[in-house]
TrEMBL record:
This is Cell wall hydroxyproline-rich glycoprotein. Coiled coil: none annotated. GO terms for cellular component: membrane. The lineage of its organism: Eukaryota, Viridiplantae, Streptophyta, Embryophyta, Tracheophyta. Residues 1-26 form the signal peptide. One of its GO terms (biological process) is cell wall organization. It comes from Helianthus annuus.
Length: 385
């Protein structure tokens, strides 16, 4: 009986060895040359990863890269009979590491998404070989250094998202000559200015928020009237007056210029932006009357103009479902600034600082309570003690 059991175990062992030998042979069979390059690239990347707490790359072994988690294959664009790696998606993996130059071997890559991880370093210069790359999303990581200028060499790129990193310095003006559809560069450490060729960009969405992008919006922004739908300029150190050219953006749905140092009156031209749904001008130094045409926009749902120095508010603005007019100088409205604070502000002249001509002054109100002691200020608000 013991001999029979021993013989049975030996037979099982032979079967198992044969099975694993077959698997090993299959795993080591070289794929087509492009998948072989992808294998080399992904193995180099795996070796540059220092932490993968959720095990996204735990199955990254063997030549069959199309079975790797986060790797997607498709027929090649130039040969439908040839399978290639067309996409990488490691979003929300919490992976630490860097991007090796070997990733330039993924020449058929169309999508590269690694948002919400802990990758650091820079974007490899070898990415210039990714001539088919359509979407690049490296947001919410720890990349640093200058703007990743290699993206300027990607002829097929349409979607660029590098927000929530630590990039610094200038944003190259050539970025706005690319045929992109979306640009997200917000929440970095850029210190730059708006280039004159900004209007060359055909984007539908552009987000600059939370950088130091100083200066005036160039007049070329008028050229974006047929494409731009969202413009986010929150906390970008804007100063001076808001250019009336902004009113040319007739397809714009969202405009946010809050948390800056803009002065003067809101341009009457904003009333021409018939597609506008959300308008936020809060936390600036705007003054004077709010144009009635703005609150009359047919699609406007949200208008936030708190923390400014407006003194005139058309009644139609009060009918908006979602508005915020707090901390202004508007008579008979709750939660406004103190009269003394408004007086002090209106005793100072408006300075557009080269960003367009200052708006015409409103007529002085017939008030018995106070008049500004100096005659040089552009506006005189109708405030009551």
């Amino acid at each position: 009986m013991a001999i029979l059991l021993s013989h049975h175990k030996f037979a099982i062992l032979i079967v198992l060895l044969s099975f694993f030998t077959t698997l090993s042979h299959q795993a080591t069979t070289p794929p087509n040359p492009r998948l072989l390059n992808a294998f080399y690239a992904l193995q180099a990347w795996k070796h540059s990863i220092t932490s993968d707490p959720r095990g996204f790359t735990s199955d990254w072994y063997g030549y069959n890269v199309c079975n790797y988690t986060g790797v997607f294959c498709a027929p090649s664009q130039d040969d439908p009979h040839l399978t290639t790696v067309a996409g990488v998606d490691l979003n929300h993996a919490n992976i630490s590491g860097s991007l090796p130059e070997d990733l330039g071997l993924l020449t058929d890559l169309a999508l590269f998404h690694i948002n919400t991880n802990r990758f650091c370093g820079t974007v490899p210069k070898s990415f210039k070989k990714l001539s088919l790359l359509y979407e690049l999303d490296i947001s919410n990581n720890r990349f640093s250094g200058d703007f990743p200028s290699v993206v300027l060499s990607l002829p097929s790129l349409k979607f660029l998202d590098i927000r929530f990193n630590q990039f610094k310095g200038e944003v190259p003006s050539d970025l706005y000559n690319l045929k992109l559809d979306a640009i997200f560069i917000n929440n970095n450490l850029f210190e730059t200015s708006f280039p004159k060729n900004l209007g060359n960009s055909p984007v539908s969405v552009i987000v600059f928020a939370n950088n130091a992008i100083k200066g005036c919006l160039p007049s070329s922004i008028k050229k974006m009237s047929e494409t731009l739908e969202e413009l986010m300029l929150v906390n970008v150190s804007l100063s001076g007056c808001l250019t009336p050219d902004i009113g040319s953006l007739r397809k714009l749905r969202v405009l946010d210029v809050s948390q800056n140092s803009l002065v003067g009156m809101l341009p009457e031209s904003i009333g021409n932006m018939k597609s506008l749904e959300q308008l936020n001008v809060a936390h600036n130094k705007f003054s004077g009357d709010i144009p009635t045409s703005i609150c009359s926009l047919p699609r406007l749902e949200n208008f936030t103009y708190s923390d400014n120095y407006f003194f005139g508010e058309p009644k139609i603005c009060l009918k908006l479902a979602d508005k915020d007019d707090r901390k202004n100088c508007i008579p008979n409205r709750p939660l406004q600034r103190k009269v003394e604070e408004c007086k002090a502000f209106y005793n100072r002249p408006v300075n557009c600082r080269g960003c367009g001509a200052p708006p015409p002054p409103p007529p002085p109100p017939p008030t018995k309570h106070w008049l500004p002691p100096y005659d040089h200020h552009t506006y005189t608000p109708p405030l009551k003690n």
